[in-house]
Structures are given as C-alpha cells and as structure tokens.
C-alpha cells in the first residue's frame, strides 16, 4: 500500500528552475573504502588515514617539493588539479561523510532487538528510562565523536590535512551534538574555514515512522546552537514526519540528490571549496553513496569516510519532475509477543497503520 501523504514540495523535489540536472560519480582509486576487498564492518578510519591510499598522483609531477609533502597535501593538490583542468560544467569535491555517534535510539534497538524495535518501541518517545524521540547521544556516542575530534587534530598536526571548506549538518539532535564535539575547539591551520555548519533539512536521516526521525522545532534547534546558521526556508515545525508514512529508497535518493545539488555549483569560487563535511546518519549516508555511484559501505556509529565525487551538469530542455511515493508501515499497539526473527503482535493488538504518537 502506498500513499503520497506528504507533499513532495515540502522536500523541495519539484522541478528545478535550472534547465539542467547533475550527474554524480565516485572517482575511485584514492581510498580503501572504494575497493571491494575492504570490509566495512571492520574498517577503522583512524587506523588507515581516513582510508587514503599511499600512492603517487599525476599532479605530483608539477610539484617542486612533492617529496616533502604529506599524502593528504599531495591529494589535496591532485583534487585542485582535477578542478583546474576540468571545464566549467564539471566539479570535483571530497565529501567527508560522518555518521553521528551512538544515540539512545541505537542503544534501545540493541536492547529490544531490531524486529521489536521496528514494530513497536521505535514508535514511542521512550520507555520511561531513556528518551529516543529526536534521540541525543549516549555517553558512548559522545566518546565516539571525541575520537573523531582527536583524529582530526592528529591529521591536522601530522598530515597537515586541508580541513573542510564547508560544513553541513542534519537538523536532528544527535548529529548536531556529534558535529559540535567533533569540530569545536580544534586547532585549525591558519586560513582555514571557520567551523560554523549550515543546518540543512535534506541531510536528515531516512524519514520513517520512528520518533527518532522526528526533529525538534526550529526554535529548539536554534537554542541548542544559536551561532550556527539554519538554511533559508527551514520550517518551524517538522512538516515531513507524521508517524504513518516513510520514505522509500527512491524517495530518499531524490532528496539526497537535491541536497547535493545545493552543495555543488553554488558560487563562482566553488571549485576552490573542494573539501566538504557532512555530518549525517547511516541511512542518509547510504543514500548519498547510492546517488554518487559508490559501492555500499555501512558506517559504524561515529565513523567518517571521505569520498571523491565528480559532478557534471547535464543540460536539458525540461527538468525531470518525477517524484516517488512514500510507504505506510504497520506496527503493533503494545509490546510484541515475540521478535526473535520477526515481529508478532499480541492477538489483542493487531497491526495498525495509525500513528502511536500524535503530538509532540
């Protein structure tokens, strides 16, 4: 059963005023995470220099001091060279995709088991002990974000890595906290872009009926981090979550494409802004990877991977206005009888498709 209960216009998925689309591809050969032999489940970005391969680059030949530069300095030069040699309709950017640290919803899912979580507990705000509506970080989640902070500082000090030129963050609490713990108080190199992330609706987690996917209102978010900019058009209330319908992969990929379209080709000097940080979620990062043609690569909580992306404008007469419908998810109205392999509702609590939580 499918419904279009949420207007695609709310996601900004209506036809663009620009008479072009953007084709995204992953440029492989630079990172371990691009290679099929790399196991995502055991991948530790802090042990392998963010996955950057130890290799030479074509652009090294133009450097007089290549031997004295670090791998990251030479890679940055290589990306700049790719941009310099490309025509105006092509851009290269390195997306640092960071997943938030462990949230209370992650801990609850582990505690209850995935089937029971999906079919009942996730539709509640919490259980009286923990709250997972727009979940915040657990202590372990904070520690994971601090691991990222310390590793960034190590890369700055030892690899002289070029820090992000632009920062974006999902509006959900766990990502806001993760970005804050990760980047605040880093000793940035002179001339680096200031860490002041743009809070961006379209980089939020896959929108499901789970309350952890329902964001707080704009005023609450602004109060959390009053100096961080919030993108224009950001609504006061969360108009995308309703507790009944959720995005399909196709719908989310359309959203992710639009988000990337708002990151690439945005200003005259954009080619110089080649490193971009996006602090987001497992489901949204998976969607971004699909959009840019990267292989499936699931991130553990708190993990970060860079991906080199090539974007090319494709001019056409009429923009594509196709939208994808959302789906309704059935769930129990009381704790399930069993959920070892699948959720089984109690006989007195047959599956329903109405929201368990109707007000926030």
Please compute the radius of gyration using only Cα atoms.
21 Å
Q: For the report, how would you describe the main beta sheet? A: 6 strands, mixed
Cα separation of the termini: 27 Å
The total of beta strands comes to 9
Number of discrete domains: 1
Assign the CATH class: Alpha Beta
Strand content: 5-15%
Number of helices: 8
Widest sheet, order of strands: 2-8-3-7-4-5
- Name the CATH superfamily classification: Phosphoglycerate mutase-like
Order of helices and strands: EEHEHHHEHEHEHEHEE
Kindly report the CATH topology: Rossmann fold
Give the overall form: globular
Residue-averaged pLDDT: 91
Q: Please bin the fraction of helical residues.
A: 25-40%
Please render the helix and strand layout as text:
Layout: E1 2-3, E2 20-26, H1 71-85, E3 90-99, H2 104-112, H3 114-119, H4 139-159, E4 166-169, H5 173-183, E5 198-199, H6 218-224, E6 245-246, H7 249-261, E7 275-280, H8 282-291, E8 304-315, E9 326-328
Parallel strand pairs: 3-7, 4-5, 4-7
Antiparallel strand pairs: 1-9, 2-8, 3-8, 6-9
Helix pairs in contact: 4-5, 7-8
